[in-house]
UniProtKB/TrEMBL annotation:
Organism: Alteraurantiacibacter lauratis
Pfam family, one: Phage_AlpA
Lineage of the organism: Bacteria, Pseudomonadati, Pseudomonadota, Alphaproteobacteria, Sphingomonadales
UniProt name for this protein: Helix-turn-helix transcriptional regulator
Cross-referenced PANTHER family: DNA-BINDING TRANSCRIPTIONAL ACTIVATOR ALPA
Region: Disordered, residue numbers: 61-86
């Protein structure tokens, strides 16, 4: 199957991030780099964006993100309570 290009607007809609946040992630090397199509036009390779999204889903399944931070917070509170009771 041939690769398909996605516009910035399409990518923003798919990944629910602003243009500024996408460029921050690109600069940090954690989001696929765009392909220049002209002097002021870039596009993203659809399969690369899809792979990034799949990676984020795997990270969530592995406990990364808000859910993991919440669990760590609960554990810290429990640890403080245990020290206070002992």
């Amino acid at each position: 199957m041939a690769e398909r290009f996605l516009t910035m607007k399409q990518v923003m809609g798919q990944v629910a991030l602003s243009k500024t946040e996408l460029y921050r992630k690109i600069k940090a090397g954690v989001f696929p780099r765009p392909v220049p199509l002209g002097t002021q036009k870039v596009a993203f390779v659809e399969s690369e964006v899809a792979a990034w999204m799949e990676d984020r889903l795997r990270a969530r399944a592995d406990g990364e993100g808000a859910e993991r931070r919440s669990q760590q917070g609960r554990e810290a509170v429990e640890a403080r309570q245990d020290r206070g009771n002992g």
